[in-house]
Design goal:
Elements: H1 7-15, E1 20-24, H2 31-39, E2 46-50, H3 54-58, H4 63-69, E3 74-78, H5 86-99, E4 107-111, H6 114-124, E5 129-133, H7 147-153, H8 157-160, H9 165-183, H10 193-205, H11 213-220, H12 224-236, E6 240-243, E7 259-262, H13 265-271, H14 277-281, H15 286-300, E8 307-312, E9 318-324, E10 330-335, H16 345-354, E11 358-362, E12 369-370, E13 375-378, H17 380-388
Parallel strand pairs: 1-4, 1-5, 2-3, 3-4, 10-11, 11-13
Antiparallel strand pairs: 6-7, 8-9, 9-10, 12-13
């Protein structure tokens, strides 16, 4: 079964505007499938190079000559971190092709580690490359009736499309083991897999909570600096999202520690040995898991230039998600799992503090319901539709 990805048209548009496009996302999220769907368009000629394949790597012993041999074709370079030295070559190839009138759609570069790829490309391809983050399958890419399956299994295609919840769970367990044992060591100094799994599991138990590096380091029996480095690695691998507090000048004492989410709800559940929806609904993590699931889906729908925060004061004012989309639109979003959701006083106070222009409660119902003080109770898909249309 092939799921049509919303990002396809966005990447195609970027290829029409830039010589190179970087498609970022964790392993197994569907980057290669999407890239091949784009490059296999009837009007495009392409060459696919998997830089984890020794035979394909051998083709690039003289990369400049190989690129010239296939001039006029779109190159799909998969797992670019395997040959970071290519970036300096790409600059020369791109500039030569641009001088010959071939200005856009030259390279589609796939990467599984955002910070390293951004650093390397910014040094050599500034002004020549645009980036698109590919998240897991989101709520708008599945049927409305499948939202609970998506929440349980997460957005990795192989997990979501498994024949049963048990098969999906096994896939995610193997995915986690592969990352710990094979993939993570590729991106930095050797990190004990047991320690990193403990951190990952700790984050799952505390999904969406403010991260206390000092406390975590005691549990992990490492230094605070090491714990921070491990967390940054998971973030760099696009497995963890750090949501920072909104810090506008409101004259209030604001919390300063970020909230940390495991980005894929299915991975969260696998780390906690949650196999079925019954397991999930009876687990203490259910509310935090739903919050993380909603946050990640909303992030996948944000327009270009929008930024996301959370808001919390020491006096109790709190907003789960603050979206700033331009200077005139500020969304305050509360996230509730219950169908009969209610709003706390802290949310009203927070809306006043940040001067929210739009006030929403994302809940588990299937229709929009107007509430008090300009608040609207809204299904997740409806809010994603609204945000993506801005």
């Amino acid at each position: 079964m092939f799921i049509k990805r919303e990002s396809k048209s966005e990447v195609e548009n970027l290829l029409d505007e830039f010589p190179a496009v970087g498609l970022l996302g964790p392993r197994q999220v569907g980057k290669t499938t999407l890239a091949l769907a784009i490059s296999s368009s009837p009007h495009l000629k392409h060459v696919y190079i998997d830089l984890e394949n020794p035979n394909d790597r051998a083709k690039l012993v003289n990369p400049t000559a190989y690129f010239e041999q296939h001039e006029g074709k779109l190159f799909v370079l998969d797992e670019i971190h395997r040959m970071p030295e290519l970036f300096s070559v790409l600059r020369g190839v791109i500039d030569k092709r641009r001088s010959e009138g071939f200005r856009t759609g030259q390279f589609l570069i796939l990467g599984s580690a955002s910070l390293e790829l951004l650093r390397q490309s910014s040094e050599t391809l500034a002004g020549r490359i645009a980036f698109k983050n590919l998240s897991g399958i989101n709520a708008r890419e599945t049927k409305p009736t499948d939202i609970n399956k998506l929440w349980l299994r997460g957005g990795f295609p192989d997990s979501l499309l498994s024949k049963s919840d048990e098969a999906s769970f096994r896939w995610r367990q193997n995915f986690i083991n592969t990352y710990l044992e094979r993939d993570v060591p590729q991106f930095g100094p050797r990190i004990p897999a047991v320690t990193l799994r403990r951190l990952w599991t700790m984050l799952a138990h505390n999904q969406g909570e403010q991260f206390n590096t000092a406390k975590a380091s005691v549990s992990l029996e490492v230094t605070s600096t090491t714990t921070k480095r491990y967390l940054e690695l998971l973030e760099d691998l696009l497995l963890v999202r750090t949501l920072h507090p909104w810090s506008g000048n409101v004259g209030k004492r604001l919390v300063k520690s970020p909230k940390v989410y495991i980005r894929d709800s299915g991975v969260t559940h696998a780390l906690l040995n949650i196999v079925s929806n019954d397991d999930l609904l009876g687990h203490p993590i259910v509310g935090s898991s739903w919050e993380g699931f909603v946050v990640e889906n909303i992030m996948s729908a944000l327009p270009v230039g929008a930024s996301a925060w959370f808001y919390r004061t020491s006096a109790g004012a709190e907003i789960d998600l603050v979206i700033e989309a331009g200077i005139k639109r500020k969304y305050a979003i509360e996230i509730k799992r219950s169908v009969a959701a209610s709003v706390s006083k802290g949310f009203y106070l927070g809306c006043a503090d940040v001067k929210a222009t739009h006030r929403y409660v994302v809940y588990a119902g299937d229709e929009r319901i107007p509430g008090q003080s300009g608040i609207t109770f809204v299904p997740l898909r409806d809010l994603m539709d609204e945000l993506s249309a801005k």
